[in-house]
Each structure stands twice: as C-alpha cells, then as structure tokens.
C-alpha cells in the first residue's frame, strides 16, 4: 500500500517509528544503526584522509617527545642546532662519529708534542726477563702484584714492551694500553721511578709502523732530574783576589764553565779553570779583576 503524502508536520508524541528499511535516498529516514555507524566511522582515525591540526589531538606533543631520535627517520639535509651544543656525546668509534672535545684535544696534544704518554713504569729492564715466570725481583727491585714494567732487553726482541707483573710464578701480561697495534703509537714514552733507570723518561725510538708481537721496541732513557738542575751563576772580581772558588753542587766534574765580561762588549774570555771536586770549580785569572768585572755560568754538560 502506498502511503498518502502528508501536507503538514506529523507529531509522533515521543513515539517510535519501528521496522524502517535501509535508507536508499538522501531524503529517506535513517535508522538508529545507520546513524551509529556513521558516527563511529567519522571518529575512527583509520578513516581520516584529510588534514587534522595537531592542536586537536590532546596527547600529540607528549607522544612525539616520548620517541627517541634513533626511532625517527634519518635526516636528508643538514640539521641546524641554532648555536647550541650537543652534550654527553659518547667517545667516537667509527670515522664518521661525532668527536668529543676531549678526544679532539688529546689528538691535538699528540700532534703538537709528537709524544704519547703511556704511564709510569716501576722499572725498565735492559736484561732478559722470563715473562712466564719472572721471579720476585726485576732490575734489582722486589716487585708487587700489578706493578707496571718496561722490558727492553728480551732475547726475543718482539717480547719487548709494557707489562703488568702478577707474581713471581705468574705470567706477565701486556698492559691494556700496549696490547694492540693501535696502542703502539710512535713517540710513546714512560716515566720510570725505580731501578737502574730510576727518575728517567723512557722514550720509544722506533720510526716505522709498530706491530705488537712482531716489531722490536727500542728505548732511550733520559734523566728526569738532569734537565731540572739550574746552572750556577755569580759575579767574579773584588779588586784583590786572583783565585775564585765556585761551589756549584751539580755533582759532576762534567760541567761547562763560561766566563764573560760584565760590560761591553760582553765577550767570553779564556781563563784557567780547575775542577778539584764534583761540586767545585776554581777559576784563576792572570791578573786582578775589579769588583764584579766578570760573570761565570756553570752548567752540567750534556752527553
């Protein structure tokens, strides 16, 4: 039966229309299920195909900030930091890793000084040591566990190097900073505190790329105290004396003695010089010098 068209509004007095069919046209009455489905589809993010402002998403900022940088897509253009620093950067491993200031400073220091400090060795032995069972003493010094030792006189030269002492009957092991080719940097040096080479610098003199276990470490020892000894200086002449005793206390007769005029042209003069002891020089001019007429400088001779 075809319903008659209504010529005016219908008041259903809060009553329902039931058993409606599925709407086909835009003017058809919609069922509750049709409205509910449309609503659910409208709010479902799976169905969003347009643009939605981030300000309309309540937890957008918090969700983005919770993601780590390594979870983000890699940048394809330079990233500017606006003049700010990257802090707490790890030490670089690969060639393309960011370098810390400490890493850069250490590398620059190595280049500037051409020397790489490798630590303090208790002794530096020029005689062979049995690495597998070194005994209680090395270079005349009674060793303690974990002492650091330089070996430079091994029968098998490739065994020379920087070692950790573990006990009289325990095998010595290469120190952590001298157990790889990368560690064996040309120009390395150590400070030696006891034994034959006490108070000296042990300098690596190799000049070719070094291979641990193959290359032979060669060292030269330089006194750490000799260079710190200041020369002795004083004015000479008093108008009467013809002999001047200078107690320089340098502990050796191998000293350089330079006597110069204390006025123009400040020239060096030849004069009789005696070295009666390791701590004394006697200067004997041929004539009488006026007060402060000459000046003497006495310093240790370099070997």
TrEMBL record:
Query: Compositional bias (Polar residues) spans?
Result: 11-27
Q: Residue ranges of region Disordered?
A: 1-29
**Official protein name in the record:** Capsid decoration protein
Domain of life (superkingdom)? Bacteria
Which organism was this protein described from? Answer: Mycolicibacter arupensis
């Amino acid at each position: 039966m075809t319903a008659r068209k209504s010529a005016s509004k219908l008041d259903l007095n809060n009553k329902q229309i039931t058993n409606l069919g599925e709407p086909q046209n835009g003017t058809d009455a919609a069922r509750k299920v049709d409205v509910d489905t449309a609503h659910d589809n409208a709010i479902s993010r799976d169905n969003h195909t347009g643009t939605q402002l981030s300000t309309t998403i309540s937890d957008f900022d918090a969700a983005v900030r919770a993601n780590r940088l390594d979870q983000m897509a890699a940048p394809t253009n330079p990233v500017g930091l606006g003049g700010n620093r990257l802090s707490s950067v790890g030490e670089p491993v690969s060639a393309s890793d960011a370098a810390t200031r400490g890493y850069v400073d250490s590398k620059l220091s190595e280049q500037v000084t051409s020397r790489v400090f490798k630590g303090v060795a208790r002794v530096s032995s020029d005689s062979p040591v049995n690495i597998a069972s070194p005994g209680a003493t090395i270079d005349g010094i009674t060793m303690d566990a974990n002492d650091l030792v330089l070996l430079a006189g091994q029968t098998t030269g490739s065994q020379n190097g920087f070692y950790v002492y573990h006990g009289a009957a325990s095998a010595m092991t290469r120190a952590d900073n001298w157990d790889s080719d990368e560690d064996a940097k040309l120009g390395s040096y150590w400070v030696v505190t006891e034994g034959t080479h006490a108070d000296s610098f042990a300098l690596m003199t190799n000049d070719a790329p070094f291979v641990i276990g193959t290359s032979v470490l060669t060292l030269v020892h330089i006194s750490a105290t000799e260079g710190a000894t200041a020369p002795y200086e004083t004015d000479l002449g008093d108008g009467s004396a013809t002999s001047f005793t200078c107690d320089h206390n340098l502990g050796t007769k191998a000293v350089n003695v330079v006597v110069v005029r204390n006025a123009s042209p400040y020239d060096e003069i030849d004069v009789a010089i005696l070295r009666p002891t390791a701590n004394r020089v006697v200067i004997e001019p041929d004539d009488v010098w006026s007060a402060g007429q000459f000046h003497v400088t006495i310093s240790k001779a370099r070997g």
